[in-house]
Design brief:
The complex is a heterodimer of chains A (336) and B (433). Chain A is an all-alpha fold and 336 residues long. Chain A is built from 14 helices and two strands. In chain B, helix 1 runs antiparallel to helix 2, helix 2 crosses helix 16 and helix 4 runs antiparallel to helix 5. The chains are: A mainly alpha (336), B mainly alpha (433). Chain B: Pfam families: BPD_transp_2.
Chain lengths: 336, 433
């Protein structure tokens, strides 16, 4: 029976990774939910938009590294991130002008827009693969740990170790800043208020003189920023690979729907719910339980509910549960 | 049914293109393209039922074709008696417990009054069921996978004729579709898309990881064939005399005869499906489906149960995709879960439906042929273009990068083609009548 060691193990293998992953998912889901709220369709290209922003950031990072620029203990990618965001903004605005605007003017059914976004998704995917290739890319540099397992052990003298990676700390801090800025923007600025008005009731917003083109533009800019930031944070943490970003689409959508599509608060909550569920269900609990239970009850197996390969199944199961019992999501998003 | 001369012309042109390939490149290549085109046409027909008749957006085609392929292994491979003895009972019992748990949970939810008692009972049933399932399932699976892992390590199939696997594949896909449809139809239209995306990823994950089922990523190859092997064909006297008569080598003649055999089988299935689909589309049922698609509210007001009708058509369309998937695995002679990727299996089929003409069965079939033909031929063309572009460049990283990226050009071209057709000719090559 050793609660402290159990807690440390839990923090090291579940809490820290889940909070990090949850923040990344939340940022992704915020983008999806914003596009859903304003443009009223599920954007299947969002995962690949993240990949696009990350790709630009990686290329700039390599250029900076080649020129000998570094950011001290922090990853150089942070310096390159603004360029990545700008490129993603331009890319999404061009896509909107060339592809989506036509259908918006025609007032097509949402499902047609979803389909068009699928086409955009494949083109984006193709562009990314064409430029950077389908393989793995690692682009993190700077210090690897804020504190490492051995430092932690030496400092506390505990049996179990705990490490906090730079990318984990960075992800959480950046995510908090971005979320705070977004909420400030949506709740305090004139443009943000007009966006919320447009999302609540399009016709009423138009009557009160809100310029719909501007609202749509700002939405794409916000979505691009969120996507690029989320993508770069995920890539720093786990490495960049175009196909992985496509696969992120499922947990991101699950997060947005669990929280309630169209609700920013919901997207954040949903991100963490999905991340914790995924980590909790695919983690082998043996070590934690060994500390918690008396020796006679110590588990023999790994006490892993599901193998890590089934993390999609966790997102999907949560999605199904929410669709069955509460289709509008935890935070009462847009109605069915 | 009136026959439009323009459509005949389009199909004629497609046939000419295949003939040209046979003459200019090789007859084997032309037949390879033809066989995959027939299968693609079947998948496109399935998706066309969902999108064209009912406006349902399925992004999980890959998953439905994959379970169809799985059926081939489960039906046609010979059983592995040793594995069955080692863990067959435990596996099946574990699965039964799993199914029983879910059913008990559903029954409990329906019977008991809402409240804390119900929630507690539900959690108790689920936890107990899961624990029991693991208790029987895990050791059994380990035992199965330990049986001669290099060649078997799985339960094997039933050893039945491989053609039987095709309808079974359709049933598997239908079951998966029912599950997804039951949950997400009747809600917002894009929830179906997200749910199908999820189920297809999960199906692939299951097929990759559950080695006891179909060897996972270790692949099952050498599946039984519905037509004789080319090697056996070479021994047949009539093949030998045919080879002499045509002046071809014996091996080539035999493989062409075998491929023609497949083409014959596939054409039979495709013909049957088109006939059924045309009948259905032009029946009162088909008119009802289109009425629902065009105006759900009006159809509902007329007393149609829109959600139920959507579920029917979604299950039917997915079953056709599963049938296509089973046929494809039969043609390949192997099940290789690692090769299923959404670009090839979901997206390409969508391009076929859109380019061909959604809502028209013949359009979907033509789309299957045209797009598959392009898919095969664009790669050499893309490489050719890239070589032209880079011809003047000095040898270096950029040149090799550009040459290597020719493969990704294919994806990009298909994406652009899909968006262009959606924008400028949304009715496709053969529009809906």
């Amino acid at each position: 029976m050793d609660i402290l060691n159990a807690l440390i193990t839990l923090a090291n293998f579940v809490l820290f990774p889940a909070i990090t992953y949850g923040s990344q998912l939340a940022l992704g889901a915020l983008g999806v939910t914003l596009i859903y709220g304003i443009l009223r369709f599920s954007n299947f290209a969002h995962g690949d938009t993240m990949a696009f922003g990350t790709m630009v950031t990686i290329l700039i990072t390599w250029a900076l590294q080649g020129a000998g620029v570094s950011f001290g203990v922090l990853p150089t990618a942070l310096l390159a991130l603004p360029v990545g965001i700008a490129a993603t903004v331009v890319y999404l605005l061009v896509t909107d002008r060339v592809v989506y605007r036509f259908y918006r003017r025609q007032k097509v059914k949402p499902v047609v827009l979803v389909m068009v976004s699928l086409g955009v998704m494949f083109i984006t995917n193709g562009v990314v693969r064409l430029i950077i290739g389908p393989g793995d890319q690692r682009f993190d540099d700077g210090a690897r740990f804020i504190f490492s397992v051995s430092q932690f052990r030496a400092y506390t003298g505990m049996e179990e170790g705990l490490a906090l990676r730079t990318t984990q700390g960075l992800t959480v801090i950046t995510a908090l800043i971005v979320m705070a800025a977004l909420f400030w923007f949506l709740n305090r600025t004139r443009t943000g208020k007009s966006m919320r008005a447009y999302s609540d009731n399009e016709d009423l917003a138009l009557l009160s003189g809100i310029n719909p083109d501007r609202v749509v533009q700002v939405t794409w800019i916000l979505a691009a920023t969120l996507a690029a930031v989320a993508g770069v944070l995920y890539g720093l943490d786990k490495g960049f690979r175009p196909f992985t970003y496509f696969q992120l689409l499922l947990p991101i959508f699950a997060a947005a729907i669990v929280g309630g599509l169209g609700s920013p608060m919901g997207a954040i909550a949903g991100g963490y719910v999905i991340a914790f569920a995924e980590m909790g269900i695919t983690y082998a609990w043996k070590r934690v339980l060994t500390h918690l239970l008396p020796d006679s009850l110590a588990p023999e197996g790994l006490v892993q509910l599901m193998s890590v390969d089934y993390k999609f199944a966790v997102s999907f199961a949560l999605l199904v549960v929410v669709l069955i019992f509460r289709p509008t999501g935890l935070f009462r998003g847009r109605s069915v | 049914m009136s026959v439009n001369p323009r459509n005949i012309l389009l199909f004629g042109l497609m046939g000419m293109a295949l003939l040209l390939v046979a003459v200019l490149q090789s007859p084997t290549l032309a037949l390879t393209i033809l066989n995959m085109s027939l299968i693609s046409a079947i998948m496109a027909l399935g998706v066309n039922m969902q999108w064209g008749y009912a406006g349902l957006f399925n992004v999980g085609i890959m998953g439905f074709t994959a379970v169809g392929g799985l059926a081939v292994v489960l039906v046609a491979q010979p059983p592995v008696p040793e594995a069955w003895r080692a863990g067959g009972f435990g596996t099946l019992f574990g699965l039964l417990i799993g199914v029983g748990t879910v059913m008990a949970a559903v029954a409990l939810w329906r019977r008991m009054a809402p409240g804390r008692g119900r929630a507690l009972a539900l959690v108790a049933v689920l936890v107990a069921g899961f624990a029991l399932n693991r208790y029987f399932f895990v050791p059994a699976v380990d035992a199965i996978e330990a049986v001669d892992p290099a060649t078997t390590g799985y339960l094997g199939g039933l050893g039945l004729p491989v053609v039987l696997a095709w309808p079974v594949g359709a049933v598997f896909a239908a079951a998966a579709a029912w599950l997804v449809g039951k949950v997400s139809l009747g809600l917002r239209s894009d929830y179906l898309a997200i749910a199908t995306l999820g189920i297809s990823e999960i199906i692939i994950a299951v097929m990759k990881n559950e080695s006891w089922l179909a060897r996972g990523v270790k692949n099952v190859s050498g599946l039984p064939r519905p037509v004789p092997q080319p090697v056996d064909m070479q021994a047949a006297p009539w093949v030998q005399s045919l080879a002499d008569g045509l002046g071809w080598s014996l091996a080539q003649t035999a493989s062409i005869v075998v491929m023609l055999g497949y083409a014959g089988l596939f054409t039979l299935v495709l013909g049957g499906l088109i006939w059924l689909a045309e009948k259905a589309l032009n029946s009162p049922w088909g008119r009802m489906m289109r009425a629902i698609r065009d105006n759900e509210t009006a159809a509902r007001a007329m007393g149609k149960d829109v959600t139920r009708r959507h579920l029917t058509i979604f299950v039917l369309g997915s079953a056709v995709c599963g049938l296509g998937g089973a046929m494809m695995v039969t043609l390949d002679g192997q099940l290789n879960p690692g090769t299923y990727e959404p670009l090839r299996f979901t997206f390409l089929v969508w391009v076929m439906v859109i380019v061909g003409g959604s809502g028209n069965n013949w359009g979907a079939v033509l789309g299957g042929f045209v797009v598959w033909f392009l898919w095969v031929q664009v790669e050499p063309a893309g490489r050719f273009v890239m070589e032209l572009v880079t011809a003047g460049m000095a040898e270096g990283d950029l040149k090799t990068h550009l040459l290597n990226s020719a493969a990704h050009m294919r994806l990009l071209t298909m994406g652009v083609a899909m968006l262009l057709v959606l924008r400028f000719s949304p009715r496709g090559l053969i529009p809906e009548r």
